[in-house]
UniProtKB/TrEMBL annotation:
It comes from the Archaea. Pfam families: DUF7346. The lineage of its organism: Archaea, Methanobacteriati, Methanobacteriota, Stenosarchaea group, Halobacteria. InterPro entries: DUF7346. This is ArsR family transcriptional regulator.
Length: 145
């Protein structure tokens, strides 16, 4: 599948192309329609990337950086209780120092956490991106498993 843009710059997925028109699908709504080929710009961006763009960027960032329930729990801890000193994080989690450092490094690389000083000690806090993503996930998630 290929991606296309219309004159307004909106992206669509190409479903079918004929000589004069193409059937395109809106990646956000799934609705399909025909448009003249000369009204579309054909791109090389992958359709799966276009589909993923329907999810807010901060949420995609969390999905990419969080690998399991423990790492998600750590991020939630930073969002809910941060900023937290590194020693306090180590004492309040079941993570060894190496695992904690590794996760915090990944969160920092993904712009989900920042290093900061807490009572004169090295600590970490969630970024606005992390807070926005967690708020979105909590709104969508509810109590479902």
């Amino acid at each position: 599948m290929q991606t296309v843009r219309d004159a307004a710059g909106d992206r669509y997925l190409l479903v079918k192309r004929s000589a004069e028109s193409s059937r395109i699908r809106d990646p956000d709504t799934g609705e399909e329609e025909y448009r003249p080929n000369d009204a579309l710009t054909f791109e090389s961006e992958t359709p799966l990337s276009v589909r993923a763009a329907a999810v807010p960027a901060p949420v995609r960032r969390v999905v990419a950086a969080v690998h399991d329930d423990r790492s998600l729990g750590l991020l939630l801890d930073l969002v809910d209780r941060g900023p937290l000193a590194a020693v306090d994080l180590l004492a309040s989690t079941d993570l060894c120092e190496s695992d904690l450092h590794g996760l915090l490094t990944e969160f920092r690389a993904a712009d989900l956490a920042v290093e900061t000083a807490v009572s004169g000690e090295r600590g970490y806090d969630a970024t606005d991106t992390a807070r926005e993503a967690v708020a979105s996930l909590r709104t969508v998630g509810g109590d479902e498993e």
